[in-house]
Amino acid sequence: MHKLEIRSVSIGSLITSSVPLVVFALALLGGVVTFMVVPNPQLYPMQTGQKLLSIGLFALLYVIIVSALLVFMAFLYNILTGVLGMRGVTLEFEEVADRE
């Protein structure tokens, strides 16, 4: 059994990885549900193009907010584990024999 401790999180990897794309896909799904599926009397006068624009703006702002939150969390995690010396997240791995 191997134990590994995560001592720091690369902030750049959070932004340049697939994480923002996954968040964007979930935000698009949430925007479609909010603006197209769930009946809302305030949205009845909106045309289809306006709803699509609303979905796009919602998804874009959602990605920006969630990405900023993830960067802040990684920064705080790095401060707590690196500067203050607190313990990081520990992962345990065990080797499994190949079954063929």
Number of domains: 1
Strand content: 5-15%
User: Count of helices?
Assistant: 3
Percent of residues in helices: 55-70%
Return the structural class.
mainly alpha
The largest sheet, given as strand count, sense and whether it forms a barrel, is: 2 strands, antiparallel
Task: Give the C-alpha Rg.
Answer: 20 Å
In one word, what is the shape?
elongated
Describe the structure.
- It is a single chain.
- It is built from three helices and two strands; from the N terminus they run βαααβ.
- With 100 residues, the chain is mainly alpha-helical.
- The chain has one domain (2-90).
- Strands 1-2 form a two-stranded antiparallel sheet.
- The longest helix has 36 residues, at 48-83.
- The chain is elongated, with a radius of gyration of 20 Å.
- The model has no long low-confidence stretch (mean pLDDT 92).
Helix-strand blueprint:
Layout: E1 2-6, H1 11-16, H2 19-37, H3 48-83, E2 89-93
Antiparallel strand pairs: 1-2
Short description:
With 100 residues, the chain is mostly helical.
What characteristics describe this protein?
100 residues; mainly alpha; two-stranded antiparallel ribbon; 3 helices; 2 strands; elongated
